[in-house]
């Protein structure tokens, strides 16, 4: 496929252009930027044939089969809807949209068209998380009792900008990181969190948006999930623990874009280091997307997956603001 980039973004530059081109027969042929100067410089730097400030230029071009959307969050809905209407397959960054209702609009539009809509949730593509999910689904942990997620980081300076001061663009740690953790939990368990309590903080970095949040979720089967997300913790590290009736998984430094981190399985027999594939997360995401476009299976994370991770994030935000236990509203999905 030939791809158009909607957004001359850092994540496209650092991860997605290479991931697309690593898949045989795939190339990036056009990029959209709101700045003509930035667009031309970005295209030249990455060997992209064309740059434009017009969405219609990309969508009306017969040479573009799919688009990757990585603009600020408030632009996802109109850009994805235009792409779907133009018959382009869509791989969209998380969160899929600003609201669950908007995400549902995108999902319905794709379902009514002959196009694939996917969410670029990278963690479920990591060898580490695939290995942890396998331990759960094969029964090595027994009945899952609880999960704890540590995802408090120091947001790199070059990624701050709108993420720390612009609620209208979808800034804040909840839409930026909680959605990742929600998708990971859903990927592990195959069920959706039901009820949430939460508290948030702002001011250490965030202006008019939250920069730290802690929350507790319950699932329909009774599993408890505890999460901590932040933009302000330089030395906390990241990790996830899954505790079951027959064993526990303790994974460190795996909530990342890189194929790194350590996984320890602890059971009555002792402790065991779990090996996993060190493949590139984004290359797998693109490969699964391309396979789905070819009519074989689904992308790694579908549009509905993106909607549901966003629904959990919305509930975390509501619970934090109101101080009330909040039921997750999945918009009928």
From TrEMBL:
GO terms for molecular function: nucleotide binding; oxidoreductase activity. It comes from the Bacteria. The keyword NAD does not apply. Keywords: Oxidoreductase. Residues 1-121 form the Gfo/Idh/MocA-like oxidoreductase N-terminal domain. Residues 130-249 form the GFO/IDH/MocA-like oxidoreductase domain. The keyword Transcription regulation does not apply. InterPro entries: Gfo/Idh/MocA-like_OxRdtase_N, Gfo/Idh/MocA_oxidrdct_glycsds, GFO_IDH_MocA-like_dom, NAD(P)-bd_dom_sf. PANTHER family: BCDNA.GH03377. This is Gfo/Idh/MocA family oxidoreductase. It comes from Parasedimentitalea huanghaiensis.
């Amino acid at each position: 496929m030939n791809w158009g980039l909607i957004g001359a973004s850092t994540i496209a530059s650092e991860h997605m252009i290479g991931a697309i081109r690593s898949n045989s027969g795939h190339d990036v042929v056009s990029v959209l930027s709101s700045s003509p100067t930035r667009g031309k410089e970005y295209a030249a730097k990455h060997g992209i044939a064309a740059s434009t400030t017009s969405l219609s230029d990309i969508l009306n071009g017969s040479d573009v089969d799919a688009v990757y959307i990585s603009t600020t969050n408030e632009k996802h809905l109109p850009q994805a809807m235009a792409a779907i209407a133009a018959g382009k397959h869509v791989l969209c960054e998380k969160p899929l949209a600003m609201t669950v209702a908007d995400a549902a609009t995108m999902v319905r539009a794709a379902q009514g068209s002959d196009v694939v809509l996917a969410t670029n949730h990278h963690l479920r593509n990591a060898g580490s998380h695939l290995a942890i999910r396998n331990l759960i689904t094969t029964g090595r942990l027994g009945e899952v009792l609880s999960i704890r997620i540590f995802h408090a980081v120091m947001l790199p300076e070059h990624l701050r900008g709108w993420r720390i001061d612009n609620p209208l663009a979808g800034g804040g740690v909840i839409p930026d990181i909680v959605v990742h953790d929600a998708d990971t939990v859903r990927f592990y368990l195959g069920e959706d969190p039901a009820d949430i309590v939460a508290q948030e903080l702002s001011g250490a970095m965030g202006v008019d948006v939250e920069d730290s949040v802690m929350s507790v979720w319950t699932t329909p089967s009774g599993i408890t999930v505890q999460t901590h997300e932040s933009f302000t913790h330089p030395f906390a590290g990241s990790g996830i623990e899954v505790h079951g009736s027959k064993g526990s998984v303790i994974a460190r430094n795996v909530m990342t874009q890189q194929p790194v981190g350590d996984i320890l399985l602890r059971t009555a027999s002792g402790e065991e280091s779990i090996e996993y594939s060190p493949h590139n997360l984004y290359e797998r995401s693109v490969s699964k997307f391309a396979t789905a476009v070819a009519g074989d299976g689904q992308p790694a994370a579908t549009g509905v997956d993106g909607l549901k991770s966003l629904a959990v994030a919305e509930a975390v935000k509501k619970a934090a603001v109101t101080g009330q236990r909040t039921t997750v509203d999945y918009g009928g999905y």
